Amino acid sequence: MSDAPPIRVLMVDDHALLRDGVATYLAPLDDIEIVGEASNGVEAIEAFRELAPDVTLMDLQMPVMDGLAAIAAIRADDPEARIVVLTTYEGDVQATRALKAGAVGYLLKSGLRRELADTIRKAHAGRRHVQPEIATAVALGALGEAITQRETEVLALVAEGCSNKVIAAKLGLSEETVKTYMRGILSKLGATDRTHAVTLAHRRGIIRL
Asked: What are phi and psi of 33, to 5 degrees?
């Protein structure tokens, strides 16, 4: 049995049941302990500063401040902070954003039981871990042409059910320009129509519904 102190973990998620579930799962392990919890990004930053955990488990979608913003803020405070994302989002865009922000791990909540403990250990040891299916999605996403910020804005309005005319008015564009953006979006996503584009964009984490 190792004499090393247990890995101190901060759990950040806005769902108490998920936090409780993770704590229950990790409780029997001698080498990992939950030292604190937070339910949004602002609380996460405060708890990180107070507790200085070895590893932080971070949800992405939370009220007040989301996980991406919290990761960036924590890493600005401590560039060596080791943060593992726990999320329901399978999309390559969200994963890429999280990894660029400084996350060292990315796990789907559906795979926590089989991978969480080992991922925490790897993060503590300074190694990265991204679930294979997410890594594949990131690699495939990197091969395609990126959706621009303006195209993302157009997509978000399409998802709200706005017509090209309404989108043009909201964004201060001509209707023809919106149509040009839509053609580019369909091509980049490999979508057959507007509805398909919204579905693919949501799946990849480009927009949220």
From this structure: -140, 140
1 three-class SS: coil
DSSP structure string for 119-154: HHHHHHTT--EE-HHHHHHHHHHHHSPPPPHHHHHH
What's the pTM? 0.74
Q: How far apart are CA 148 and CA 141, in angstroms?
A: 14
Contact 66, 60 (CB under 8 A): yes
Which residues are within 8 A (CB) of 31 and not within 5 positions of it... i.e. 6 or more apart? 2, 4, 6, 7, 121
| Contacts with 207 (C-beta within 8 Å, 6 or more apart), sequence order | 152, 155, 156, 159, 198, 201
Which tens digits make up the pLDDT trace of 94-146? Answer: 788 888 899 999 988 887 888 899 999 999 999 998 877 777 667 666 556 77
Residue pointed to by tokens 């992405």: 60
Which H helix or E strand runs over 106? strand 105-108
Q: Where do the domains of the chain lie, and which CATH numbers do they carry?
A: 7-141 (3.40.50.2300), 149-204 (1.10.10.10)
